[in-house]
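Name: Nicotinate-nucleotide--dimethylbenzimidazole phosphoribosyltransferase
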Amino acid sequence: MTSALTGLPFDDIRALISRLPVADEDAVAQVRARDTDLTKPAGSLGRMEEFAEWLAGWQAKAPPRVMRPVVAIFAGNHGVAAKGVSAYPQSVTQAMVENFAAGGAAINQICSTFDLGLKVFDLALHVPTPDITEEDAFDEAGCAATMAFGMEAIAGGTDLLVIGEMGIGNTAVAAAIYHALYGGTAADWIGRGTGVDDAGLERKRSAVERAVARIGGPGGDPLEILRRLGGREIAAMAGAILAARFERVPVIVDGFVATAAAAVLHALDPAAIDHCLVGHVSAEQAHADVLRRLGKRPVLDLGMRLGEGTGAALAAVLVKAAAETHAGMATFAQAGVATKG
Ligand SMILES: O=C(O)c1ccc[n+]([C@@H]2O[C@H](COP(=O)([O-])O)[C@@H](O)[C@H]2O)c1
Ligand SMILES: Cc1cc2nc[nH]c2cc1C
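Structure predicted for Nicotinate-nucleotide--dimethylbenzimidazole phosphoribosyltransferase:
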C-alpha cells in the first residue's frame, strides 16, 4: 500500500475517529427498565447489570445477546527482542502461532470450554519490525495498512470481540508506548513480562528509555507514537477496536499489551474506547496505573500475565452470562413473585 494509492493514511484514521458512532441510549434505557422488573432485588447483580447495559448500548439492541463471540489474536515480532528484553527467544512467537492452530495453547482450552470462536492473525512474523531503540517501527503507510489489516478481525460477523496478542518482546514495546503517552520514566512502565531476571529488566528499562528518547521524549501525536514505536500486533489491535466501533460490536481488551492499542486510541479521543471493557488487570506492574488513566475498571483480577486474549476471554464468559441472565429471567409479574413492599 503506498500513500499515492491511499492519500494520507493517518488523515483517514483521524477522519474515522472524528465520526465515531455513540451508544444507543434507547437500548440502554430499555435494559434498565426491564432490569427493574426482573425477579431479584434491585441492583443485586452488581456489575453484571452494568455489563448488560453496556452491551445493549454498543450493540444497539435490547435485550443484548452474545451468540457469536470471537477471540482475535494478533501475532507480531519485534526487532527490539535482540536487545535481550524477554525471557524467551523470538522463535516462540511463531511456535505459539502453530500451537494455537494445533489447539494446544491456554486460549484454545478457554475457547473450547466456553464455545468462543478463535481467529489468529499472523503479521509477517519472519520480518520483525525494526529495533525501535534505533529506528521507527513503521512508515505511515505501513502503520495505517497494519491498522486496516486489523479491521479484518470482525469480518464474518461477531457480536462480541475479544482482543488478544502474541509477540516475544512486546511488553517492552507496550511500555515504550505508555512512557511516550504518559511521561514519567521508563522504569515506571516496565515489568517482568514473560519473567525476565534483574539483568533482563535493566536491559528492558534501557531499551524503553532509548526508544522514547529517540523519538524526542514523551508527548506528541499518538498515531506518531504508534508508528515510531510499533509493533504490528498493537497497530492491528487498534484497527480492530476501531472497526468494531463502526460495526456496533462491543470489545473486550486483554492485558498489558492489548491495552496499549486502546491507550493510543484513547489519547486520540477519550471516547474512542467507550465501547471497550478491559477484561482483567494484568500482573504486569504498570497495568493498573494505565487502567486508572483510561478510566477502566477491569472485569477480573486473577493475577494473570499470559496474553493470548486469555483474561479477556474469561471476562467474555461473564459478559455473555450477563446478557443471558438479563434476557432469560422472569419478571415479578410472570413468576408471581411479590415486589418490594
Ligand atoms: O498482556 C499482558 O498482560 C502480558 C503480560 C506479560 C506477558 N505477556 C505475553 O508475553 C509476551 C511478551 O512478554 P515479553 O517478556 O516477551 O515482552 C507476549 O506474547 C504477551 O502476550 C502478556
Ligand atoms: C510459551 C509462551 C506462551 C505465550 N503466550 C503468550 N505469550 C507467551 C509467551 C511464551 C513464552
